[in-house]
Design goal:
alpha/beta; Rossmann fold; four-stranded parallel β-sheet; three-stranded mixed β-sheet; globular; binds NADP nicotinamide-adenine-dinucleotide phosphate
Length: 270
């Protein structure tokens, strides 16, 4: 999702975009082949992103998301180049109840989130790093978006008329194209200025429930389907893995309002 948007955004740069079979981040032999001069930045997006999969396959989850991140950080160190690591708002436990700042203390509550937080810790062991934390991602259209927006659209296409969406999970929607744009800013300014550290990267206006997010999606789709309020515990069969119920990030890198981006995205893609 993020990679597709980023490749389009950075098309003026000379990009090396290895596929998983060419550069599996857990495969040190493959990584060695990238110890070549000319690479001047690593943007590390590779990840096991499915919370449910990670919860029942913790070894693979930590191997890819933490150990693999360690290997990629090591590659950056060997090449003496910066690394950008994508992290997530869901490394927090949600107890704070007000938007999280980069300095707040993470306390992840499932394997995926823990593996991402450990990834952050590993990356921080090398000075020349930038960690970008983002939120509920959407973008890429029907073929690429396997997350909330994509899943909701699929339910509607399958003929569901009353779709239950929880109103007790609050987060920060993030459009992959805006994120890619923000990343370009980060590369041109923070990386070039050696402003290493952790930055929030979410659309403006976050702090909305899944229900509000879904209602806004439905508004722009030509559909007579409706969203129905429920609680996250009502959706245990669909989302068995424990999740944070408050994962709002304070504004960081400047990004547009999520409602404007969502509208443009839905109208252009669905
Ligand atoms: N999506 C979100 O809501 C969200 C929110 C915050 C942060 N992020 C972060 O953003 C980054 C990108 O996420 P995304 O949403 O773009 O996920 P995505 O679409 O699932 O992309 C992840 C990519 O990583 C690849 N991958 C998986 N295991 C790999 C391995 N061992 N070696 C090399 N590549 C591997 C996957 O390939 P295959 O598909 O072939 O397995 C896929 O192309 C991740 O670090 C994620 O934690 C995402």
């Amino acid at each position: 999702m993020v990679g597709t948007a980023l490749c389009a955004e950075l098309n003026q740069h000379n990009l090396l975009i290895p596929r998983k079979h060419e550069l599996n981040v857990t495969n040190q032999e493959q990584i060695k082949r990238f110890r070549v001069s000319g690479i001047d930045l690593i943007i590390h997006l590779a990840c096991e992103t499915d919370h449910e999969y990670c919860e029942i396959n913790p070894t693979q989850c930590y191997f890819v998301n933490t150990v693999g991140t360690g290997f990629m950080t090591n590659l950056a160190w060997e090449l003496s180049i910066p690394i950008i690591y994508m992290s997530t708002a869901s490394i927090f436990d949600g107890m704070k109840g007000t938007p999280y700042l980069p300095v707040d203390r993470p306390n992840p509550i499932n394997h995926y989130n823990t593996s991402k937080y450990y990834g952050e810790l590993v990356v921080r062991g090398y000075e020349r790093h930038i960690i970008l934390r983002s939120g509920w991602m959407f973008g890429g259209g029907a073929d690429i978006d396997k997350k909330f927006v994509g899943k909701l659209v699929k339910k509607i296409e399958a003929g569901e008329k009353q779709i239950k969406v929880c109103d007790d999970c609050i987060g920060s929607p993030t459009y992959s194209v805006d994120l890619a744009d923000a990343m370009k800013y980060v590369i041109d300014n923070l990386v070039d200025g050696a402003d290493w550290g952790t930055y929030n990267c979410v659309n403006k206006g976050g702090g909305v429930s899944r229900y509000e997010f879904a209602a806004e999606i439905i508004k722009h789709l030509k559909t007579d389907a409706a969203v129905i309020h429920c609680k996250i515990d009502d959706l245990k069969s669909e989302f068995p893995c424990k999740r944070t119920n408050y994962e709002v990030l304070a504004d960081g890198i400047e990004m547009p309002d999520w409602k404007d981006s969502l509208k443009g995205y839905i109208l252009a893609n669905y």
